[in-house]
Write a structure and sequence with these properties.
Elements (H helix, E strand, L loop, with lengths): L5 H17 L9 E7 L2 E4 L15 E3 L5 E3 L8 H10 L5 E5 L2 H9 L9 H7 L4 E2 L7 H7 L8 E4 L3 E6 L2 H24 L7 H14 L20 H23 L1
Parallel strand pairs: 6-7
Antiparallel strand pairs: 1-2, 1-5, 2-3, 3-4, 5-8, 7-8
This protein binds zinc ion.
Length: 257
C-alpha cells in the first residue's frame, strides 16, 4: 500500500486531533494519535497539550522501542500502547485513542459493546470487547490490551476510554466514530428496555457480506446472540456464543435493576 509522506502524516494527525476535539471525544489534554512512518519510526502526539490545537511541529517521532528520535516535546505517556499495537499488527498504520463519553460510559460500567444490534457495526467491527482496567501510562495498560489486539480493531478500555486502529489514521478515526455512534444506539436500547438482536441467519448473511467487501482479518469475530451448538462454524462461533450468553445475563441484570 502507498505510505503517506511524513509531511502528510503530520497534517493528518493535526486534522484528526481537531476532529476528535470538535466532536467532544477528548477533553483538556486527553487522547493520543499516531501514524507508522516506516518499519522503525512512529509519528505520535506529545503529552500535556490539547489535541485540538496542535501544530505539526508539536509531534514527536520515536523508534519501535519508544526512544525519541525527533521533536522538542515529550512523547505521550501512552506510547507503550501504540507500539504494542504496531508490533502485533503489521497491517495497522494509524491509531486513535480517545474518551468519547458514551462509549467510555459503557467502559466505566464494565459493559462491552458486543451485542449484534446494528448490521453496519457487525459488518465493520464485529464486536467491541472490553479490556480490563490498567493504569494509564504503565506497561500494565498495554498488557490488558494484548490478548485483544490480534482479533479486534476497536477496544473499550475499562474505566478509561477507547482505542481504534486501522490501515491508516483516517480508518482508525472512522472506527472511533462508529464505536461512539454504536454506543449511543446501544444506550438507547437500554433506555427503551428492549434489545432485539440480529439472529444467526441474519448474522450469517452479514458474515458473507463482510467476506465479500472487507479483508477477513480486518474485522473481529461476529457476535452471536443464540448458541449454535451443532458444531457448524467451528471454534470461533462457539467462542462467540459465550459473549452472547454473557450479554443475555447482563441484559436480564439490567432489566432487573
Ligand atoms: Zn486515555
Amino acid at each position: 500500500m502507498h505510505m503517506p509522506s511524513q509531511f502528510q502524516s503530520r497534517s493528518e494527525i493535526v486534522k484528526t486531533g481537531k476532529m476528535l476535539h470538535q466532536r467532544g471525544y477528548i477533553a483538556a489534554c486527553d487522547g493520543n494519535l499516531s501514524v507508522r512512518l516506516s518499519k522503525n519510526q512512529v509519528l505520535v502526539t506529545p503529552t500535556g497539550m490539547s489535541k485540538g490545537s496542535m501544530r505539526s511541529s508539536d509531534l514527536v517521532i520515536v523508534d519501535m522501542s519508544g526512544r525519541k528520535l525527533k521533536g522538542r516535546r515529550d512523547v505521550t505517556s501512552e506510547i507503550g500502547m501504540h507500539l504494542l499495537i504496531y508490533r502485533m499488527r503489521p497491517d495497522v498504520n494509524g491509531i486513535v485513542h480517545a474518551h468519547p463519553r458514551t462509549a467510555t460510559g459503557f467502559a466505566a460500567a464494565g459493559i462491552a459493546l458486543d451485542q449484534p444490534l446494528a448490521c453496519e457495526v457487525v459488518i465493520g467491527l464485529g464486536q467491541i470487547p472490553l479490556a480490563p482496567y490498567g493504569t494509564p501510562g504503565t506497561p500494565e495498560l498495554a498488557r490488558t490490551l494484548e490478548p485483544l489486539v490480534p482479533q479486534f480493531d476497536a477496544v473499550l478500555m475499562a474505566n478509561h476510554g477507547v482505542v481504534t486502529y486501522g490501515v491508516d489514521l483516517q480508518s482508525a478515526y472512522m472506527k472511533m466514530e462508529t464505536v461512539e455512534h454504536f454506543a449511543q444506539i446501544a444506550l438507547i436500547t437500554h433506555i427503551l428496555g428492549k434489545q432485539q438482536l440480529l439472529d444467526c441467519a441474519e448474522l450469517d448473511k452479514l458474515i458473507a457480506a463482510r467476506n465479500k467487501y472487507l479483508a477477513v482479518n480486518s474485522a473481529a469475530p461476529m457476535p452471536v446472540h443464540s448458541s449454535n451448538g451443532n458444531g457448524n462454524g467451528g471454534a470461533r462461533r462457539q467462542k462467540k456464543s459465550t459473549f452472547a450468553d454473557e450479554s443475555r445475563d447482563r441484559e436480564s441484570t439490567l432489566l432487573r435493576s
